[in-house]
Amino acid sequence: MEFAEASGQEGSVMRLGYGGDVSNVAIAAARQGLSAGMIGAVGDDAFGGKLQALWDREGVDRRHVLRPGGSRTGLYFITYEAAGHVFSYARDGSAASRYTPADLPTADIAAARLFHASAISQGIGLGPCDATFEAIHLAREKGVSISYDTNLRLKLWPLDRARAIIHATAALADILRPGLDDARLLTGRQTPDAIADFYLGLGPRIVVLTLGSEGCLVATPARREVIPCLPVAFVDASGAGDTFTGAFLAEYARTGDEFASARYANVAAALKTRGIGAIEPIPRRAEVEAVLSGEPA
Q1: What's the CA gap between 289 and 258, in Å, rounded?
Q2: d(Cα 96, Cα 74) in Å, to the nearest integer?
Q3: Are 122 and 132 a contacting pair, CB within 8 Å?
Q4: What secondary structure letter does DSSP report for 70?
Q5: What angle do CA 44, 50, 51 make, to 5 degrees?
């Protein structure tokens, strides 16, 4: 669950919201028409119940989200500074941090078309990290396409360990989704092209590097293209990258065209930034397609 800083009558307050990058991705994908499900664990508390209700409303399959008795849901807090969002975490001992490979729904992973994972899931504990690797290896053995977001949170783990785990996982991915700032820290490269070269060298077929207000760079061994961002009346960037990822995966599953999928995802992410919060402003397919067909954003 997410607590985000907001303005109140007596100064700053913390506004309760739904968060978690893989949950945001699943909801964004579902709103574009993709059948999506979650794997993980939530707490046996009010927050866990709220997340279950959210996934039910959004049509995200939660059969494989555990809710161990007596456990608690992980929380994080967002404050805003001149440089952007600042994240603080209260995830030690949470239900998700205790997830292990033994908890994986192996049959459903093997039957999926796409499996998406995030470095944040790996950073919250050794068990979830091992489970992520186990799930990816199983999916690869069954021919399932792997999508991986290198989402770096240095408050979860030190840079050297994060770099080693993230790059070992990136080498197993078909679709890699780094962001520019994280990629500079992880790779030591500074330019988008150099970062794309580095990550393609690890083995992914497709690298989709988000560039913030500059859009994204889509790179394959044969082609690369910078796709500009859609100008909109910006309000809040929370969850924009996750919206991009979910929309990209939904469109890629539909078309198999990574460049068209990135154009679609750019529009979806831009539309999301017009509203406050990570979930509520995520657009549905009809809204995205209307803008792509020429309607104003």
Answers
A1: 17
A2: 7
A3: yes
A4: T
A5: 85
Other Cβ atoms within 10 Å of 36 Cβ, number? 26
Q: Which H or E run contains 185? A: helix 180-187
Could you give the CA distance from residue 10 to residue 253 in angstroms, rounded to a whole number? 47
Residues 122-151 have pLDDT tens digits of: 999 999 999 999 999 999 999 999 999 999
Cα 269 from chain centroid?
A: 12
Radius of gyration (C-alpha) of the chain in whole angstroms: 18
pTM: 0.93
Question: Which burial class, exposed, middle or buried, applies to 95 when counting CB atoms under 10 A from its CB (0-12, 13-18, 19+)?
Answer: buried
**Domains of the chain, with CATH numbers?**
2-292 (3.40.1190.20)
Distance CA 124, CA 75 (A): 12
Beta pairing, strands 175-177 & 145-149: parallel
Q: How does strand 224-227 pair with strand 216-219?
A: antiparallel
Q: Which tens digits make up the pLDDT trace of 30-78? A: 999 999 999 999 999 999 999 999 999 999 999 999 999 999 998 877 7
CB burial of residue 222 (10 Å; 0-12, 13-18, 19+): exposed
292/268 Cα distance (integer angstroms): 10
Residues in the chain, how many? 297
- Report the distance separating Cα 212 and Cα 191, nearest Å: 14
Mean pLDDT of 191-196: 98
Strands (E) in the chain, as ranges, are: 2-8, 11-17, 37-41, 61-66, 75-81, 84-90, 114-118, 145-149, 175-177, 206-210, 216-219, 224-227
Q: Which residues contact 11 (CB under 8 A, 6 or more apart)?
A: none
